Amino acid sequence: MLQIVFDSLSLGSLYALGALGIALIFGVMRLVNFAHGDVIAFSIFALLWPSTDALAIVFAGQLPWYLLIPFVLLIGAGLSVLCEIVVFRRFRRASPATMMIASFALGFVIRYFLLMLFTSRPKSISLLPMLSQPVEIFGARLPLLQLITIIATVIILVGLTLFLRRTRFGLEMRAAAENFSMARMLGVRANRVIMGAFALSGALAGAIAMIFGSQTGTVDIQMGASIMLMAFIATVIGGLGSLAGAVLAGFLLGAASVIMQVVLPVDARPFRDAFVYGAVILVLLFRPQGLIAARGTKERV
Amino acid sequence: MTDASLSTLPETLANPRKPAPFALARKTIITPILLSLLVLAIAALTVMLGSRPFNQAMIDIMVRVVLVVGLYIFIGNSGVLSFGHIGFTCLGAYAAAWLTINPLMKKASLPGLPSFLLEARLPYWQSAIIAALFAGFAALIFGKVLMRLSGIAASIATFAVLAMINTIYSNWESVTGATSSVVGIPIVRTLWPYAGAAVVAIFIAWGHAISRSGLALRAARDEPTAAAASGVDIPRERLVAFTISGAIMGLGGAAMAHSIGVVTPDTFYLGLTFITLSMLVVGGMGSLSGAVIGVLLLSALIQALRWLEAGVPLGSTTFALPKGLQEIALGVIMIVILALRPAGLIGNREITLFRVNRNK
Amino acid sequence: MSLLVLANIEVRYGRLTAVRGVSLSIKDGDTVFITGPNGAGKSSLLRAIAGVTPASCGTIDFDGYNITGKAPEDIARLGFSMVPEGRDVFGSLTVEENLMVGTGMKARDRGWKAKTAEDLEAVYQTFPILKERRHGQAGLLSGGQQQMLVIGRALMTNPRLIAIDEPSLGLAPNITDQVYERLIALQSLKALTLLIVEQSSTRATLVGGRMLLMRGGQIVLDGNAREVGNSAAVQAAYFGYEDH
Amino acid sequence: MAYETRILGKTRLLAMAMAAVMAAFPALADDGKIVVGFATAASGFMEAYDKPAQDAAMIRINEINAAGGLLGKKIEVVSADTKSDRAEGAKAGLSVIDQGADLVVVSCDYDFGAPAALAAEDAGLVSFFLCAESVKAGIQGVGPHSFSASVLAAVQGATMAEWAYKEKKAKTFYRLLDTWTEYNKGICDGFDWMMPKIAAEGAKLLGQDTFKNDDASIAAQITRIKSLPQEPDAIMLCTMMPGAVSAIKQIRAAGINSMILNGSGVDGSYWLSAVPDLSNFYTPVQGSIYGDDPNPDVQKFNAAYKTATGTDPSSQYVYPGYSMIDVWAKAVERAKTTEADGVVAELEKMKDEPTLFGPRTFTAELHHQNKARYLIVGVDKGKPGVVGSWTISEAVPMSALVK
Hints:
The complex is a heterotetramer of chains A (301), B (360), C (244) and D (403).
Chain A: H1 2-29, H2 36-45, E1 48-49, E2 57-58, H3 65-86, H4 96-118, E3 123-124, E4 134-137, E5 140-143, H5 144-166, H6 168-178, H7 180-185, H8 190-216, E6 218-219, H9 223-238, H10 243-263, H11 272-286
Antiparallel strand pairs in A: 1-2, 3-6, 4-5
Helix pairs in contact in A: 1-5, 1-6, 1-8, 1-9, 1-10, 2-3, 2-4, 2-8, 2-9, 3-8, 5-6, 6-8, 9-10, 10-11
Chain B: H1 11-14, H2 20-28, H3 30-49, H4 52-78, H5 85-100, H6 103-109, H7 115-119, H8 124-146, H9 151-171, H10 173-176, E1 182-183, H11 192-210, H12 212-222, H13 224-229, H14 234-260, E2 262-263, H15 270-283, H16 288-310, E3 312-314, E4 317-319, H17 325-340, E5 349-350, E6 357-358
Antiparallel strand pairs in B: 1-2, 3-4, 5-6
Chain C: E1 2-13, E2 16-27, E3 31-35, H1 42-50, E4 57-62, E5 65-66, H2 72-77, E6 80-83, H3 95-101, H4 112-126, H5 128-132, H6 143-155, E7 161-165, H7 173-190, E8 193-198, H8 202-207, E9 210-215, E10 218-224, H9 225-228, H10 232-239
Parallel strand pairs in C: 3-8, 3-9, 6-7, 7-8
Antiparallel strand pairs in C: 1-2, 1-4, 4-5, 9-10
């Protein structure tokens, strides 16, 4: 039982962090950023030296962990900010559909750039191998990594909350997320806030990449896609624009997935995702604005 | 923004008695005719001049025209982005497979099918019609539940439908063959049936757009409050569009099945969803002409980049793009087009003979 | 001296023209009402000045700077504070956080912290209810309190001019009275310029000041509120045939 | 009007483009040479799988050409890129056929190769899947002229089950299936067929579960294994890259030390760094890439491959490409023609035809291997090496293959 709680939490952590990255950007510019998954993939590939060989040539991946983690976070944040400056800045006045397709096209560009450098073959990388040991807690024997994932997520969430609540930048960002044009009329600098949101979101992508990479030991140009999809769904059922909602929904999705896997009979287990998505539709029907509707978020899509 | 909102409602809504549709039909029929002529002209040129791979490439493009026009019927008219339509394509493709594969093969590979399907072996055009009806029916059922939603919640709900269809079709061993390819679908390699399907889709889209329901839906897209106030039942009109577009997507699915002779669930998932959506948005989401021209231009672009990648002789040397650059270039060009023309190449207009109409 | 000068402003939404060729000059320290029927283009004009929906043609000067086509935040930083229609408080933020959002633009100035604390205290003095609820969520305030909050929030930016769109919308008459009372008191206290959009001319007639009447995207009447307030032209503007 | 001219301009462009295509692909059927057409992925994600096998095929083609060619003619090679896309695959197939291919080689994976193979079948040509391991890559899916160069996935599952029971004395088994692809299911199908046979002799299936290759975590599945009353002796893991590494890593990280049995899809040392000190891990392979193959000719081939491509073989999936050209060329020699029916008839006569990578048999019912000799590669403390060889006691019957 306890094991199931841990399983749900660790899977939910990934979804929650992903959803947070998407909600941050959606909040300030109504952009559903489909390139987010590719930012995740990119941040982890940055640890490898470009090569088309099957064997991965580890480059920055050999750094000690206290350098490795900031490096990956920086790469994510940097790429994300770059996307904003080069691409999304030109779409400020575009409709959400147009922005969404542009973000998809951008993700496509990043993915094929990686493909060109590294080929499509999944590469293996041993990140933080010391985390692959099992530990025992309250009678549940779980991989250290699972525990670290949960702890890291909690730290990130607390840190982000403090940042948003205690700093001026956080205040401006929250105001902008709720009503962007009003915030601008109060002198909040649009570009600065949006870039900040992209940087945070990118750093979150880097964090996911780290966790996911050390959990799976593989890097793959598609690796961000499945998390991105779940995160996207979590953002919507959480209530678009609501950061708390995104996190909550992320954990709920994780729990739903794990619990379905546990309770479904073996023949129905391959259909697990159909049940999860069915639940998503139900939630949307009963709460179309999401679990925690962001106040003042007008329907613009 | 609320200034003068009522005036943008089409006259037909303000004046329900006026026999406007026929006048409207006369005024606008030139658009589908021109688009169809364009499609047929390309088909004719291909049949006269093209090699077999080129013919196959054109078949793909015609299938895409059907799919993107199908998307336009719902997305363009309602303004609600749907990620789920490719699910109906999947339904259509498998329905076509069930109806046309040799019964002997079906008994071996898809034993779970009901007996009337196991025995069936229809010509491709009949199967395509039934596939379209089946997909339309599925769209009706799903739409009944989903059309209450709007905005991004609706988009996600449609995506959930796609994911559900995909999960079920990927695992229902005895009926869909799960993830394995279903083979034995008769392959139709002549271009004309596909061009015909594209023309049919274009005319259905036009017919819907000028129908009362289509007009009401577009009015609701542009001015939801005003439209609701003048008695437009938005969920109902959306459902009509959703059903029709679902049927067209099903038709496209059947066409796809017959064009390569193999269906698998993962063909009908995110990749196809995004490429068709991109074509619609790049062409112009709110316009039928945009849908058709988006497909033709992006497909032409993709082909051109592929030829460049394969190498083009320039004098004594061969110029070739490095491998993989084709996709990158495609993404970049799409971004540039959208940055320059956020409403798409055609925007909200339709092509006609004499002038470019707005909003029809 | 003119604080705000508009020359030949036009605002379009697609093929719809909301404001056609408005020219106007507002003196420092004035109280100016813009009135007119629904759809006359009043809000569009304000939004154009604030840079939210840029004018499609014409020029706007504020405090001697050409602000045509400038971003809203840059216009705000020059001392133009906009209070849009529908109040737009940041509902999930606390009252005090709402008040603080606009203070960031001076954050580099010396003595900013002390100045901000002082400003905050001044706003609380003007609107004691805000002090009482300062740690509560702004979204939970009543309509009148929210209106006070947005005015207080605008004041926190130390503006030269406050533009308010429909301050009385959805408020009970006695609350509206309170809001106006405070506004007028503030104006004389801080030498503010007020630009107020109201659909009805009644309030303008009561408060006094300059009154502009808009219809069909144009200014059709300009004069002292008490004098033109109920003239035949005003009646015609409201009840006459509309065609836009 | 502006749009009218634009459209006219576009059609003109298309006409020009079409002319360009026609010039690029002249439809030739020259009998003076033998053409092998590769409708494989030269880009996109299948490239990583198609390219190595195709390189191996080229080595055999070059050897044949160096030895004087086939039926006295040189083998020419044409190719078209499927871009790892099914619709493009059909085009690529038609394209190499138009270039006069006598043999159409299609993508490694059944799903991606089928469209091109169907095009070849339509044109009455022999088609070979580079390394597809589904029974459908052949008569059952494409038609009577289609073959696969590899061994059925089911044979891998059956081999591992029987070998683990007989050689490693594994008594209790657990089955973990990744439902992502047909290949994965094929491995487990073979395991399912073998399980009752060894169960009759005392083995036991403790339980089973499924997951999906791109699942972010398989924690729930692992919890189910851990809640078994006893840890299974062996876990049959029916999966493939990239999810396989993730699954293996998570299984070991959870402290489960059971023997892990796999399909050939996880062969290769390139990923082993992801699971430090991996042990008790076994994979069936057609030949060893680790320099310890009992057949010295395989080691010679490995060297030739390195000379040709600059890298060592990355997994056993390079080998089927070589065997493919080998058996096809033998059939052509025997039939004295490249004409499809003759070649097919000769191929179907092959029984235990020796190749560098084990004997090959084709029959009129099955153009695929339902029984094969497999080397077993074991990984011990992160070091892979051949630990044995096994051939299943009886061929996997059609009833277990076609469900």
